[in-house]
Specification:
The complex is a heterodimer of chains A (288) and B (216).
Chain A lengths: L1 H5 L11 H30 L10 H7 L1 H34 L5 H13 L2 H12 L2 H14 L7 H26 L2 H9 L4 H12 L1 H17 L2 H6 L10 H10 L3 H26 L1 H4 L1
Chain B lengths: L1 E10 L2 E10 L4 E5 L6 H9 L4 E8 L2 E2 L10 E4 L11 H11 L4 H15 L14 H13 L5 E5 L7 H17 L3 E6 L2 H7 L2 E6 L2 E5 L4
Parallel strand pairs in B: 3-8, 3-9, 6-7, 7-8
Antiparallel strand pairs in B: 1-2, 1-4, 4-5, 9-10
Helix pairs in contact in B: 2-3, 2-4
Classes of the chains: A mainly alpha (288), B alpha/beta (216).
């Protein structure tokens, strides 16, 4: 220790940065590699035929089945409807939570997080319990009277189950988006002659468009992957309430792994496609 | 004319009380004070952006204390400009006129006038991210002047600018002062800026707001 004290502080030897960069690279790289490896394995499983296996490509075989085609169609339509509904709800909630202070705000803030922290299966079960209660049955009767379709074990149930979870993510995103936009711009718009509503539509919402795109993507991707709540609340009836995630589950449960992977691949392509689309739209060139 | 009569404004846990001052029509009033003394809060209360807990705000003899910001006819330039990131310079200059339902021709004429006055002709199709600090402030000033307000409220409009740009902007504000009969309330902490531009100087201190003589 005495020797250290007498050392010239100017001759301090700086440690190499190598181990730090190596650590960052290895820890981060493992996860990126895992994601890519999973995708490559899926593709290899479909492209490279198993020994002794013959017959048509499992991908085309899966696509040829009317049940699978129905589930793809239902998935794409229900996810899109859920996304639109989520945006309609998440924009006003996000705006209110970001711009206004009111009694009970922290309570509502916690309530909005419940769908994110609850296990999805529990959400499905809770929906089912709600709709078997008196008011729930009354509402379903009313809905049936107006639209001619039920909610539970029907397509509206699929959408509601997706919406319950997807919307919570859209709300979080929209709130963070409005938090980042200075209210000053809306104030200036008000001095220029806008009402609060006009300032919102003409200034705040256009400024929030990047957040809107992100919220829509998150909502769409969450609904595409939704499984537990749909299974419990809307069932998995073929050609009725079967979506892609339930198809994968049903195909796996009867041992048709090839078809399950084929449907999974379609979901991967759809999800990656949306991701790329958002990246393109979200790039500086498009946003500014 | 801007007249504040025993105005009390709360801003979070901070209260600025009993502010009285009068800026006659066509005069350039500067409100000075240290950072955090509440001078911007007073300006925001004049614009209607901060609720007033007591006292009155009168514009041109009219009590506007309970009026919405949109009804006060005040051109407001905040410190950072607060330009609308999605709009071009042209859209900024047209914004208040379109809200008021002006025709296309009238809007174009007014854009031409403002662009000429503020040297924005070559910037009309740019968006805020492509503008320098001085250009942004000129656009913010043009946007505030576009609907020919009777009152202009400037919140430290020069503080974020470099020395040369600040001198240019000062010269521009002097031009506006001599060419238009607009009444100005300008908030700053810079004494040089105040003495150069002001007809009247008010200082926000520990004992409220006091009028100072402009000793140039």
């Amino acid at each position: 220790m005495i020797a250290r004290k007498t050392e010239n502080p100017r001759s301090h030897r700086v440690r190499s940065d190598g181990p730090f960069y190596l650590g960052l690279g290895i820890l981060g790289g493992v996860y990126v590699f895992l994601i890519l490896a999973v995708l490559v394995a899926d593709m290899a499983f479909l492209v490279v035929p198993e020994k002794g296996a013959s017959g048509p490509n499992p991908f085309l075989k899966a696509l040829a089945s009317p049940e699978i085609r129905y589930s793809i169609k239902l998935s794409l339509i229900s996810c899109s409807i859920t996304t639109i509904l989520s945006l309609w709800v998440s924009v006003p909630i996000g705006y209110v939570m970001s711009r206004f202070r009111f009694i009970g705000k922290s309570f509502i803030d916690s309530v909005l997080d419940i769908p994110i922290v609850l296990p999805p299966l529990v959400i499905g079960l809770s929906l089912l319990i709600l709709f078997s209660s008196g008011p729930g049955m009354w509402f379903e009767g009313l809905f049936h009277g107006v639209t001619g379709t039920r909610i539970t074990y029907a397509i509206p149930g699929v959408i509601l189950a997706q919406f319950m979870v997807a919307c919570a993510f859209a709300v979080r995103t929209m709130r963070a988006t409005f938090d980042e936009i200075s209210p000053r711009r809306e104030q200036v718009a008000q001095t220029l002659g806008c009402s609060r509503g006009q300032a919102f539509w003409m200034v705040a919402l256009p400024e929030a468009r990047r957040g809107l795109v992100v919220a829509a993507t998150l909502a769409w991707a969450r609904s595409l992957g939704e499984f537990g709540p749909i299974l419990v609340f809307a069932g998995a009836t073929r050609l009725k309430t079967e979506v892609m995630s339930t198809s994968v589950f049903l195909l796996m449960s009867v041992g048709d792994v090839e078809a399950a992977v084929a449907v999974s691949m379609i979901m991967i392509v759809a999800a990656v496609g949306v991701l790329v689309l958002v990246r393109l739209m979200g790039s500086e060139r498009y946003v500014r | 004319m801007i007249a504040l009569d025993q105005l009390t404004v709360k801003n979070g846990g901070f209260t600025i009380a009993d502010v009285s001052l009068t800026i006659p029509t066509g005069s350039y009033g500067v409100l000075m004070g240290k950072t955090g003394c509440g001078k911007s809060t007073i300006l925001e209360a004049v614009c209607g952006l901060k609720p007033v807990s007591a006292g009155r705000v009168c514009i041109m003899g009219e009590d506007v204390t309970e009026r919405k910001p949109a009804e006060r006819g005040i051109g407001y330039v905040p410190q950072d400009g607060a330009l609308f990131s999605t709009m071009t310079v042209r859209d900024h200059l047209a914004f208040a006129l379109r809200i008021r339902g002006y025709g296309r021709g009238a809007v174009q004429t007014r854009i031409g006038e403002l662009a000429g006055l503020l040297g924005l002709e070559k910037l009309l199709d740019r968006k805020p991210h492509g503008l320098s600090g001085g250009e942004s402030q000129r656009v913010a000033l043009g946007r505030a002047l576009s609907f020919e307000p009777r009152i202009l409220c400037l919140d430290e409009p020069l503080s974020a600018l470099d020395h040369d740009t600040r001198l240019e902007m000062c010269a521009l504000l002097e031009t506006l002062k001599t060419r238009f009969s607009v009444t100005v309330l300008h908030v700053t902490h810079d004494r040089n800026e105040a003495t150069r531009l002001a007809d009247l100087i008010f200082e926000v201190g520990d004992h409220g707001v006091q009028a100072l003589e402009n000793e140039w």
